[in-house]
Amino acid sequence: MGMFDPLKGFGVTFATMFKKVVTEQYPEDFYPSAPRWHGRHQLNRHPDGLEKCVGCELCAWACPADAIFVEGADNTEEERYSPGERYGFDYQINYLRCIGCGLCIEACPTRSLTMVNFYELADDDRRKLIYTKEDLMAPLLPGMEEPPHPMRLGENEQDYYVQGPELARGRGVPEGETVETSKEEAIQ
Length: 188
Description:
Elements: H1 5-17, E1 41-43, H2 58-62, E2 68-74, E3 86-94, H3 103-107, E4 113-115, E5 130-132, H4 133-136, H5 160-163, H6 165-169, H7 183-187
Antiparallel strand pairs: 1-4, 2-3, 3-5
Subunit structure: NDH-1 is composed of 14 different subunits. Subunits NuoA, H, J, K, L, M, N constitute the membrane sector of the complex.
Pfam families: Fer4_7
Membrane topology: Peripheral membrane protein
């Protein structure tokens, strides 16, 4: 330890004493976060308004803090919430436990769960920090229907037998025309 070490430490203090003070007016001036910063979770939707979550519970299994609870249920013909057989009936994320690691995002097979840039997650009531499915669901865009509604298949999701094997394989069948085939021809 040298004799001038305390003066070096005070040098940092004296250098900052004469700099201009920067005050952020946080609630009034809301600065956006970095584009790749991960904040609050969001459950995404398909373009027609159906939920992407199929209730597989992989995100809950991947969470090291045990902050996610998912309960799946079966879709019916009268009430359809997702394109598959199942949907996430009950979905909760406890932000008192969440460590923001993003392992749940990596585990999601349907890209239903993502993280947005919203970072204001503090609250003085513990019950408000348990986000439910309604809090996490992405808002409906204009033209979307509120689920449940009957499933409508897009052009790329139609049955193989309706499209025909040539169109399904990408051969030169004009758009809008289908080829009549039997199941035996389709198998070959």
